[in-house]
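The instructor's notes for this session suggest beginning with a concrete chain rather than abstract definitions. Hand out the sequence below and ask the class to guess, before any prediction is shown, which regions might be ordered.
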Amino acid sequence: MDHIEFVILTLSGFLTVKFLAKWYWPIFCAWPAGRGRLGRAMLCLLPVAALAVIVVTLTTWAASDVVGSPLFILFYTLLGFAWLHLGVFIMDALFDLSWRDDILGMGNRAALWALSGGFLGFTVIYAAANIGDGPGWWCVAFAGGLGLAAWVALALLVNRLTDVFERVTVGRDVACGVRFGCYLLASGVILGRASSGDWTSFPMTVVEFGAGWPALPLAGAAVIGERLFKRHG
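After discussion, reveal the predicted structure:
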């Protein structure tokens, strides 16, 4: 492990501790015990599920020098939780979907389902970006970054054409939240698959990312479905 990787390991460890503290402290200390048991259970399990997905990927399908190295498995796991920290921030800032305000504060079950799908969606993108051989962490960051950027852009496009964010956070439409959460997870799986594979070069990674094209018709189907549900809702 070189100096840059050590700095990234340290920073990722700090962000992991910060993320988990900010995630679990309100759930156990600020959330009334008798309210929202389903929401409490789902929020508690999301980081655990993310950890399982990341560790299984790293120990099974990652680069050959990672699979057999506990140190690098720890490195990419902590980097993954720093990624989760970023993903939660993105959903809050761009999707107006806040787990603290919408779920903990207001008990919005529509937001619970949407956020859960989104959380798992960007987890899968990161985990899949670790699949295959590559020369370093920056390969994972670049390939996963392509997937995350496309995932965010398509979700914003779906919202632009359907107002799904407002229907989830303001209208509290649970069915809409479930559908949007499923879309976020499904698109994450498709774009994660496009982000995976052996590293060759930056240009070839962009070209190979074209394998994620099914995310486009999926977004189109989501738009058509939401507009129909909105019209007849």
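Then share the key points. The CA atoms of residues 40 and 135 lie 40 Å apart. The mean pLDDT is 94.
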